[in-house]
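User:
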Amino acid sequence: MRYSSTRGQVKNLMFEDAVMMGLADDGGLLVPNELPFVESNLDKWRPLSFTELSLEIMLLFTSGRIPREELMSMVKQSYASFRHPEITPVKSVGKLHILELFHGPTFAFKDVALQFLGNLFAFFLRKRNHPLRILGATSGDTGSAAIHGMRGKQGVDVFMLYPKGRVSAIQERQMTTVLDSNIHNIAVEGSFDDAQGIVKAIFNDRKFKQTFHLGSVNSINWARILAQIVYYFYAWFRVTNDIRERVSFVVPTGNFGNVLAGYYAKLMGLPIDKLIVGTNENDILHRFFSRGEYHSTEVKETLSPSMDIQISSNFERYLYDLTGNSSKQLQLWMDEFEQSGELTVESNLQKKAQQDFASARVDDEEILSIIRKFHQDHKYLLDPHSAVGVCAAEKIEIQTPVICLACAHPAKFSKAIRKALGTEPILPEALASLQNLDTRSKTVPAEPEAVKKVMLDTLEA
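Assistant: Predicted structure:
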């Protein structure tokens, strides 16, 4: 298995190099040169546990660089701290199946990938004679999951950017209460898109990137997508009995990485009918799949803050696939979007996209309504992001069984729960204890040079 950039200038990397590079040196995203087709393995894989299934799928992508026994040990270590024995259990709620992805240490779906990525970095760094400086941006959950996956790791420093005042109070405290010497939180005076833009700008400074050995934990890193592919297979096994049975997945979507993993699972032969993209009022992806218009607008603050995104960093990987893997066409599209903030695809490509995807937009009032409805009808409490997915499922006529991804624990978003139900959610002890801990972070303007200065000052101290 080799990896190449969507922009065409970085080619044929081994798995280790792809993971350590993060964002490709030409500014593109790394993708496998080809995907394995595994339909013939489905019956054999059906009885496997989550960790066993992870091993089988990951071995297909790791270029033979990690011995089977070591990879199995790494996978087991990654999920040992999850609170549910199935890691990502599926529960039937009314007519829907809910894939619960919030049983990891930070109560969010990002734990599934970032616990693994932290151990992957540690494994590769043992063979290298230089440190790794992680630079990332978070709309809320990536930051805490990355920090908890990397804290205390020898040879790793983490610089995590987040939009000041635009993550929930608990999300912020999950990051800023981690006082390990290798963790550095940076509050950016702007939106998540601003923070993400800063990260890309710094990564595109090749001299800075190479001098300080920058790495990425955002879903621009291929290993994030790989780990997330697993739970689509695992969930399909939980709700089907036969290889001929198809299901549809509904995915609350902001940065496109989570639903992209489902798309790759489908290309690998998993019997998926439709992938439903649920957006909040920041609906750039809904406008693309319904009208073919990927047009950026101003970011709106909503009750589902982790999805308050107008530039979906992983969408480039999908656009590359939509072009038939044409780096030339992809580069033209990305140049157009970077210059104008708008990209419109031809109707034939829009129809091609609609063969795999559908979408729905969900506003704050609909989020509150579906939280109330599910709590009253099923005694099941949705977080506001998962509510976007469930509401999207209700808006679209779907002929197959439906699996909705539940991406975060509702206690992380007390504002939305309080508005919906008039009461505070019960905090798990791990979250309640954050209120009494000391915090540490630095606030900077939304400028790459300001972030670089914090990094330099920290590393020189």
